[in-house]
C-alpha cells in the first residue's frame, strides 16, 4: 500500500481507526446510547484531542463552547471576524430543528460560528470492507457528505475538519456501537482545508455503526439536537 493511495489522520473520537486497510490505531469500540428525546444532559468524555485517544460512551462528549441561542435561523448580515465577508443566515438554529438534506444549520461552537449543510447520508459500497480491512460484523459503514461555511471565527485555525465528528453522526438507536473512522474511503474524501469568513468547504466523514440501517444524521453538542433527513 502506498502513502499516496491512502491517508492517515490521527485523532480521538467515538473511536479511532485507520481507514482503508490500515492497521488499527488506538482502535476503540464504544457502546453508545444516543439521546432519546431532545437535548442530552450528561456525558462521559471530552471533545477530541489530537494528541491522545479517549473512549466515549452513551452520548457526545462535553464541550466548553458557549451555549447557542435556540431561535430559528432566518436573519442575514455580514460577519465582522476573519478576512472575508459572509452574507446569509447568522441566527443560531433552533436547538431541536428538523432539517432536510441540503439545508444549512447555523452552529455556534465557542467563538466560531458556521453554517453546516449536511448534503447526504450514504451507505458505503461493499468494497469498502475489503479495501479498509473492516469486519462487516462490526456494523454498516456510512458516509456523511457536508459543506461548512465560516460565518465568524476566532484567531485560531478554522477549516472543513473543524466540524466535530463526535457531534455529527448517523442517527443510531440505544445499544448500538459506533465508530468514527479517520481518513479517506472510496467515494468519501475527508479534507482539512482552512476557511476564511465567507468561504465554504466540502468534506466527508466515515462511520461504522451496528444495528438497523441509519437514514438520518444528527448534530448533538448538548446545546443542539438537530437532525437531517430526506
Automatic annotation (TrEMBL):
<feature type="region of interest" description="Disordered">
    <location>
        <begin position="31"/>
        <end position="86"/>
    </location>
</feature>
<protein>
    <recommendedName>
        <fullName>DUF4352 domain-containing protein</fullName>
    </recommendedName>
</protein>
<keyword id="KW-0732">Signal</keyword>
<feature type="signal peptide">
    <location>
        <begin position="1"/>
        <end position="23"/>
    </location>
</feature>
Amino acid at each position: 500500500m502506498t502513502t499516496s493511495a491512502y491517508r492517515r489522520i490521527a485523532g480521538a473520537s467515538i473511536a479511532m481507526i485507520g481507514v482503508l486497510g490500515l492497521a488499527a490505531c488506538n482502535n476503540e469500540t464504544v457502546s453508545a446510547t444516543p439521546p432519546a428525546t431532545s437535548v442530552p444532559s450528561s456525558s462521559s468524555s471530552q471533545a477530541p484531542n489530537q494528541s491522545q485517544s479517549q473512549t466515549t460512551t452513551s452520548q457526545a462528549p462535553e464541550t466548553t463552547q458557549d451555549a447557542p441561542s435556540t431561535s430559528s435561523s432566518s436573519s442575514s448580515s455580514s460577519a465582522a471576524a476573519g478576512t472575508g465577508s459572509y452574507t446569509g443566515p447568522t441566527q443560531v438554529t433552533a436547538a431541536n430543528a428538523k432539517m432536510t438534506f441540503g439545508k444549512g444549520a447555523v452552529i455556534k461552537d465557542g467563538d466560531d460560528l458556521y453554517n453546516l449543510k449536511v448534503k447526504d447520508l450514504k451507505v458505503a459500497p461493499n468494497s469498502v470492507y475489503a479495501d479498509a480491512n473492516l469486519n462487516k460484523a462490526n456494523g454498516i459503514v456510512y458516509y456523511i457528505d457536508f459543506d461548512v461555511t465560516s460565518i465568524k471565527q476566532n484567531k485560531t485555525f478554522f477549516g472543513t475538519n473543524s466540524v466535530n465528528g463526535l457531534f455529527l453522526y448517523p442517527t443510531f438507536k440505544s445499544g448500538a456501537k459506533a465508530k468514527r473512522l479517520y481518513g479517506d474511503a472510496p467515494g468519501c474524501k475527508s479534507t482539512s482545508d482552512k476557511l476564511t469568513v465567507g468561504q465554504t468547504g466540502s468534506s466527508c466523514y466515515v462511520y461504522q455503526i451496528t444495528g438497523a440501517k441509519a437514514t438520518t444524521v444528527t448534530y448533538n453538542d448538548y446545546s443542539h439536537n438537530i437532525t437531517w433527513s430526506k
